[in-house]
Design brief:
mainly alpha; DNA polymerase, domain 1; globular
Amino acid sequence: MHPSQSELLQLKNLGLASVNILHSIGIRTLDDLRRVGPVEAFINIRGRGINASRVMLYALQGALLDVHWNDLDPVLKANLVDEAERQLARKDSA
């Protein structure tokens, strides 16, 4: 499937560039994103050498919740960042 035909493009916060990045880590459907989750997807993106910011992490969570990333609860954003940082630190120390 060509990225421009992806169901991911129908989700809030995800444009063609984001969808291409998701496809590069094997996420091609909403179900894939749900299964992997925003934190693991973000870590996989970073693991491919893509310098994704926290906004990408927020955008992935917002896509799953059908909420603009900027409207996510600040506590949820902080929890996402904490979890991502913990997992990245574990991978760096392994």
